Amino acid sequence: MKHNVAEKDPSYSLDAIVDEIPLDNFNKGAQDEALGILSLDSTKRHYSAQEDARLLRKIDRHIMPIIFFIYFLQLVDKQILSFSSVFGLSRDADLVGDDYSLLGSIVYIAQLVMQPLSSYLLVKFRLSIYVPLIVTCWGATLLCMTAAKNFVGLLIARFFLGAFEASVQASFILVIQFWYRRKEQGFRLAAMYSNLGWVNVFGSLIMFGIAHIKTGVLFTYQIVFLLLGAITFIVGLISFRVFPDNPVKSDFLSAEEKVMAVEYPKGAKSKGSAFGQTSKV
How far apart are CA 234 and CA 243, in angstroms? Predict the structure, then answer.
């Protein structure tokens, strides 16, 4: 059903229109949510370059920090084996022969095996639920690795770690493509991938500090797994509240901004052209 209240009364706010629409209109599987919110207001609106810039800054503040931090944690978790090996992992876990190499490879084998399933789940569930869930699960896996004291235990834990991390990178690329214009995506992806360098700088310092914690109960590698697992698990839980969904479902946008954000990735023109018309970017 299309609502033309704004045409009859221009002073009627879009927020008021949204409040009058039953939530069921947004939850029907066959109905596109973006199309649904655009149908709330049939008037052609004009937005200035300043309004576009303000919206972009707001999107950056709410999306990029959580993506950056989760990807940093993923890269730290991937390198946790090499970090731990410096502090006696092979000795304490009785690794022999090719055991260490297999522990390093099993994460990527798991990611390869899980790609078809993770690709299916990526489009089956909302990113605001799916990403926090897999982050929480891989944090829980790291916590469980604390109990692993031999090759078999570490191998099983590392397999599940790779399985849960299989679609994280693809999810972030999808989020960036969904929220940003083509010309803006490169910088955001570069910012995310800059973690490849940051993790070697700060990850090593973090491991150095953690490794000097002495308990007399746990091996050094177990302390590393325990602390990083706890951090990742907590970040996963927090992500259920802060990880972005599509513009229609995002709490940090007003009703007016939701309309803007839905059309924004298309490259809508500034004031002087009807918002929603596409231009080359």
Answer: 13
